[in-house]
Amino acid sequence: MVQPRTSRFKSDIRIKPGKARVKEPETRMCEAPGCIGPGNCRVAKSPKNLSEYLWYCAAHARAHNEAWDFFKDMDDGDIQRFREEALTGHRPTWPLGKRGARARMGQTPLGGVNDSHAMFAEDGDSTTVRRPERHLTRLQVMAMDTLQLAHNATLIEIKARYKELVKRFHPDANGGDRGAEERLKQVIKAYGVLRASGLLS
Fold it and tell me: Of 118, 119, 116, 91, nearest to 105 (Cα)?
């Protein structure tokens, strides 16, 4: 039969009565002049200094809060500006997609996000678009050449060139002349290759 192991240390720890010391909490005095009450209420010093505090008793804290006037030294324009900024929690805002607003905030477009498909670019804005780095297959290279595009063209440039060439070579745009119809078929085929390969998704 296996004997249970017993510890050589005592498992029954008892504190003798009267030996435990309870640390008395420090008692603050009210900081109001002439008051000897406990200062257990924390209040901000002033509207201009919200990070520093005073410790008052309940009666003086109530009087301090009742006399509090956040807009005391503000004129009507400052008060109106404060109300408008309060709608957004006093955080800066700007219209989505506005380049001037982003420049005023000192931010790169989209906070440095790579927008290779120019989803957030404004019409005709190619300066903020980072060119995609891609490895094209032989068919994709031929399709880009057919559309007369650089191999690192963006999604917007590919679609714009396709629309431009379709309008140019369509018989309806040439007074019914079917001479450019073969060129139109090549453009449509090239665009289909790019779309089927997932380059336009």
Answer: 91
